User: What shape does this take?
Amino acid sequence: MSLPTVIGFTLSLLLFLGAIVESTTNYKIFLHLTGFLMVVGGTLAATNVGFEARYVKQALGNIKAIFFSPKMARGMLTNEVARVIRWGYMLQKNGIQALESDVKSLKNQDAFLAYGVSLVVSGYTGEEVRHMLENQVETTFQRHTVSVEILKYMASNAPAFGMMATLVGLVIMLDNMGDDPSKLGPGMAVGLLGTLYGVLFARLILMPAAEKAHQRESIIRFRNMLVAEGLVLLAERRSPRFIQDAMNSYLDPAIHFDIDKAPKK
Assistant: This one.
């Protein structure tokens, strides 16, 4: 689990709850199971009608994933440059056959890299490798960001179902008003909780999850574009130093790879 994410979320939540503590001592009034179930249940029902179940499941998984460390961190990009440069030296020394063993080991670790290296081993030109890898990068990104659109769809629907929960609560409250008018105030407070739950569900959970999922997929897309450029240069049999400079041009200077400072093996 990502510690900065947990700390940031906890502090922000404490600030939010602190505002409530300052306003009232009757905290139980903010708990209303029926309103909560109407918001969550209605939002999920509409989403399952609008999207395939497997994509909905993937989107819900992204909500949980926001509390975990990303698969691709900034420093790993330098390692990707180093890996491609190592392959460049292997090509210079032992020819294309030197990469074949790496293809086999990569298949269960990184499908994109395995596919890219297999294209180089197959003898395609640099332009052909570029075309196929760009297709792979873009179609993968589009598939993986379907869940982002689903989360945004859920976020747009949650407040509407919150309003529905409020309307249902008000109808029930007005129906019972003749029995005891003194319950009008508390009943209205409970009815309005549906709207509160809908807004909180959308703005505190769904939209942040959508934004973080999109951010992480964008980072993976960038990494794949970086690797694709390196593989194109391998296919063109460019020198390791040229590969270094070309791939470094994608990166922040602070994380550039330097052949001259790399440990000698």
In short: The mean pLDDT is 85. The radius of gyration is 27 Å. Residues 184-235 form the longest helix (52 residues).
